[in-house]
Every structure is written in structure tokens, then in C-alpha cells.
TrEMBL record:
Localization of this protein: Cytoplasm
Role according to the record: Catalyzes the formation of sulfite from adenosine 5'-phosphosulfate (APS) using thioredoxin as an electron donor.
Organism listed in the record: Mesopusillimonas faecipullorum
Name assigned to this protein: Adenosine 5'-phosphosulfate reductase
Gene that this polypeptide is encoded by: cysH
PANTHER family for the chain: 5'-ADENYLYLSULFATE REDUCTASE 1, CHLOROPLASTIC, 5'-ADENYLYLSULFATE REDUCTASE 3, CHLOROPLASTIC
One Pfam family this sequence matches: PAPS_reduct
Active site as annotated: C222
Catalytic reaction annotation: [thioredoxin]-disulfide + sulfite + AMP + 2 H(+) = adenosine 5'-phosphosulfate + [thioredoxin]-dithiol
UniProt remark on cofactor binding: Binds 1 [4Fe-4S] cluster per subunit.
Cofactor list: [4Fe-4S] cluster
Length: 242
């Protein structure tokens, strides 16, 4: 087996155990990405003290949906699946078209709002905290990502225990523990979202270059992590006036 970052691994388990102790009703939001699979494995080692949820947007690639079932079978954990409101989807398509998200950032974010943000808002109601698999190295909008923050958008505490991890450390863990992962990662997809909004990246490209590839790199958030864009905007304004 490959070597892995022992200190990081132990710190991750300690962090998740601490969150569970302080916020027993906290939930881990998983997109079934490589980072989220590391979180899933860490939770399994702890006996799943935290609930897990995922968002089925209605446009996920087949390998992502297949992994959801693999996780259920491999770990025996029940992952809550939250879906968008059908009426809101029908209204969006009727007014703008099924693929209007290609036309502007505003229409893309509107689609994300319906398919991701609103379902997550429902899923987080009544909870004291949520946990993500975000890392600082995933893109310019996440460079200043804290390990813990109060999420003003959803009104609860938010933990990013993998914030300081590198891409290589994530994959060292996956290989060491033979953690199941999305097969699209082997096809050049380091970051995977909805099928129409995700492509494989080219050698040397940013890890999130394949997400909403037609947009500027500083807008590549779907609304689930609004604070990332706010921090990025503040950083840009500081540099412009520095």
C-alpha cells in the first residue's frame, strides 16, 4: 500500500469526532468527490457519528449515481438524498430553456440555485452545523478557505476539515485504504458536478477548470459556498487598492 499522511489522517478523525461531540445533529454534505470519499471513510472508522447527505440535481453523470450505490453497499451507511423541487425546475426550463445555463453566469447560478442551493437549504434546516470536503487547492475561490466558519448563508456553523490538504494527500489516502471513488477521476475529471457543466481537464489546467469551463475562474461556485466568492472579492479589492 502507498504511504499516507498519518498526521493529517489522525487530525481529520479527531476533527470529525469533535464536530460530532459539539454538534450531534451536524451533517456531512457529500458530492461523492474524492475528498468526500475520504470523509466517508474517516466517518466509517468512527462508526458514523455524523449523518451524511448528497444532492441529486437530476443532471448527475451515471458514474456519480453508481458510486452512491457503491457507498451504500461498501460502508452500509444510509446517505440522505435531496432533490430539487420539480415545479421550480419546470418553470426554469419553460422560461429559459433546458440549457440556459450556458448563456450567462446569472442563468447558470439560477439553475444551481434550484438544483443545489434550495435542496441543501431544506436539508440543513434544524441542524447546528455542516461539514464539507472543500480544499484550498481546488481553485482561486477557495484559497482562503478556513477550517471552521459561521455560514451566514445558511445560518449555522460550517467545517472544512480538509481545507489544508493537498490533492496528493487525498489520493494517498484513497490508494492506501482502497477507498471506492468516482471512475470519472480516472478519465481526467478531478472535479465532477452536473454532466452538462463538467468536462475533463487538460494537462496543467486548474483542478476546477472543467467545471463551468465557459466562465471566468473567479466565478466558479454554485452558491453552496457563497462565502468563498465573498472572500475572493474582498481579496481582489484589497489588491486593487493596495
Amino acid at each position: 500500500m502507498s504511504e499516507f499522511p498519518e498526521t493529517r489522517w489522525q487530525a481529520l478523525q479527531d476533527s470529525l469526532a469533535s464536530v460530532a461531540q459539539e454538534f450531534p445533529n451536524a451533517v456531512v454534505a457529500s458530492s461523492l468527490a474524492a475528498e468526500d470519499m475520504v470523509l466517508t471513510h474517516a466517518l466509517s472508522e468512527l462508526g458514523f457519528p455524523l449523518a451524511m447527505l448528497t444532492l441529486d440535481t437530476g443532471m448527475l453523470p451515471a458514474p456519480t449515481l453508481a458510486l452512491l450505490e457503491t457507498v451504500r453497499q461498501h460502508y452500509g451507511c444510509a446517505i440522505e438524498v435531496w432533490r430539487p423541487e420539480e415545479q421550480a425546475l419546470q418553470h426554469y426550463v419553460a422560461e429559459h430553456g433546458a440549457y440556459a445555463f450556458y448563456e450567462s453566469v446569472a442563468l447558470r447560478k439560477s439553475c444551481c440555485q434550484i438544483r443545489k442551493v434550495e435542496p441543501l437549504r431544506r436539508a440543513l434546516q434544524g441542524r447546528g452545523a455542516w461539514v464539507t470536503g472543500q480544499r484550498r487547492g481546488q481553485g482561486v475561490t477557495r484559497e482562503d478557505l478556513p477550517l471552521s466558519e459561521f455560514d451566514t448563508a445558511f445560518g449555522l456553523q460550517k467545517f472544512n476539515p480538509l481545507a489544508e490538504w493537498s490533492h496528493d494527500e487525498v489520493w494517498q489516502l484513497i490508494r492506501h485504504f482502497e477507498i471506492p471513488y468516482n471512475t470519472l477521476h480516472d478519465q481526467g475529471y478531478p472535479s465532477i458536478g452536473c454532466d452538462p457543466c463538467t468536462r475533463a481537464v487538460k494537462p496543467g489546467e486548474d483542478l476546477r477548470a472543467g467545471r463551468w469551463w465557459w466562465e471566468s475562474s473567479d466565478s466558479k461556485e454554485c452558491g453552496l459556498h457563497g462565502a468563498n466568492l465573498q472572500r475572493n472579492t474582498v481579496e481582489q479589492e484589497t489588491q486593487n487598492h493596495g
